[in-house]
Design goal:
CATH class: Mainly Alpha
Number of strands: 0
Order of helices and strands: HHHHHHHHH
Structural class: mainly alpha
Helix content: over 70%
CATH architecture: Orthogonal Bundle
């Protein structure tokens, strides 16, 4: 049985950091984009035309019931068949954003459904427009209720992002595979990456929750 030697990873520190940075950027950007898209989807599924509600419902169900890697491959390998060519990092952004938006839209719908209709009527009675009532009376409280669930979903998408290495995006997993192919220290490389993903999940969750505690400061009792 050979001895462990983590020092053999030192020459590849820059590669591992590059992969880590890509994973973090992918996660942060797709979390923001995915949640914003989820707000639009949730609103249109509740108030849009019937054909739009059905179309968005189909998008949500297809996304939630197919593997993320298949969605990624469809965007990166399938769309070029229609003449739509997308580079690897853009395909990763699109796939992660659409995946997170589908799940987040359902989470938001659950939070929105908890708002009493009488509150909307009260907002209209105070002179608010339909959009203002939706924003201030429905959407913000709904966000506060489901924020922890949204962050958990974002972390799940971050962990699932490891598959973007399959289309040659230089993320953390791609970096690990690259290092292992050079020094053949599989145990050390993947043990390190496992710990990095673990710390990354805890760190991002903590950071997002801190942001939420400030944004929803007046509703801290609900977000805990």
């Amino acid at each position: 049985m050979g001895s462990l030697d983590f020092l053999t990873l030192l020459p590849y520190t820059s590669d591992l950091l590059k992969g880590l940075l890509t994973t973090v950027v992918l996660t942060v950007v797709t979390t923001l984009a995915g949640i914003m898209l989820a707000v639009v989807v949730a609103y249109l599924r509740a108030h849009g035309q019937i054909w739009l509600r059905r179309g968005l419902g189909t998008y949500v169900e297809v996304t939630r019931n197919t593997p993320f890697i298949v969605q990624l491959f469809f965007i990166f390998f399938g769309l070029p068949g229609l003449g739509i060519k997308i580079d690897a990092i853009t395909a990763a952004f699109i796939a992660m954003t659409l995946n997170l938006a589908a799940y987040s839209a359902e989470i938001l719908r659950a939070g929105i459904s908890a708002t009493a209709k009488g509150q909307l009527e009260a907002g209209r009675a105070l002179g608010m427009s339909a959009l203002q009532s939706y924003r201030h009376i429905v959407l913000v409280p709904a966000f506060a209720r489901v924020y922890p669930s949204l962050i958990s979903q974002a972390i799940i998408v971050m962990l699932g992002s490891a598959v973007v290495s399959q289309i040659s995006v230089f993320d953390l997993t791609y970096a690990a595979n690259f290092v292992q192919s050079r020094n053949f220290r599989s145990f050390e490389v993947y043990l390190l990456i496992t710990l990095v993903y673990l710390l990354l999940a805890f760190g991002l969750r903590r950071a997002f929750m801190l942001v939420g505690s400030r944004v929803f400061a007046y509703q801290r009792g609900e977000t805990r």
